[in-house]
Amino acid sequence: MTVVADLLDRIGPVAAPSKGAAEARAWLDRHGLPDRRDEAWRYTPVPAVVEALAETPPSDAGPVPSGAVPAAIAIDRDLVDRRAGRPDGPRLVVVDGRLAAPLSDLDALPAAVRVGPAGGAPGAPPADGFEALGRVVGGGAVAVDVGPGGDRRLHVVHVATGRSGGAHPALSLHVSAGAAFELIETFVGVGAAAVVNAATRVTAEDGATVGLVRVVAEDDESVHVGRTAVALGRGATLRGTSVLVGGRIARHALDVDAAAPGSHVDVAGLAVPRHHDRHDTVVTVDHAGDDVRSGQIFRVIAADRGRGSFSGHVIVRPGTVGTDADQSSRALLLGPDAQADSRPWLEIFADDVRCTHGATVGRLDDDALFYLRSRGIPAAEARRLLVAAFAAEVVDRIGDTGTREWVEARVRARTVGAG
Question: In the chain, what are the domain boundaries?
Fold first, then answer.
């Protein structure tokens, strides 16, 4: 029995059959799951992810119809508020990959924002074996369609319960030409240690402006493998912010297809591993169109024996002109055993290009600590202020006040006493 077949046998029949699931199973049988030989997975402990998936309680109740939430899951709005904070705008709640309508603000959505099931038809090919696995066993994607109009914001809280073969949430977002929209995705867990395999796909039409905020904040023993794929139209703008503040293994891969001319990509991320956590962020921006600009800013704050990794992949296709790509990676180590990896990964096949990258790894600045102490600030408070200032370059990008303050509290809780 292959690894894939064994894993599917252990997880059990979570989702009802569909044509999309059949296509994904065929893809998975051909390509399999990624491993450490894949460059994009160099810093992710893939065997531990597979083991965690295999050890999740199987779904012994048979397939769950798309859009249904198992009745045994007792989650109310107060619990979601405590776990994920309270956003400024409307919120959707997705439990183990299925939209929970009673917990969601469906009646508060703007008229131009439509939410529903994405259906089981085949879509774009999976980005990797884990996304294919999610299509095979998941409960179907939640689709968000944004029509023309002004600024809008939607918060989606993904709740994982640690039951039924893991959580495999999938979300698709379509933003119409000229529209502006911000999607905030927060991933939290309740009950047993969760195993989450999440996928988000975004299409931004010509001239659209899309903000993406993704916060991974499951419990300490949880495992999270997630990916976001974005396709940008002519003159479209992406502003993305990724924060990893939970999970013993947490991975987020962002793939941006900038094939249309004049698009702009501005992405940033923060990872805060502690204990023995492994947090990995992989960003790929494919400059396939002319006059595409991209910027990547990523920060790691590692405590205890935590290890944070960032890979910034920039592709510049042959024949393109006017490419401008910047990349900055900085890591703050709060203990002698903390680790950080930074890997600029550039593939440049054109001449009219400007690409820069820089990376630093260091500890808290002794001079800055001394300055704060000399002003009467206690040592622990001085360290907290310096850590918060380091994180602020990313966290301050989060426009939703409730989400930003909740993330600040998570960073503070994970770094208190370190350094």
Answer: 3-364
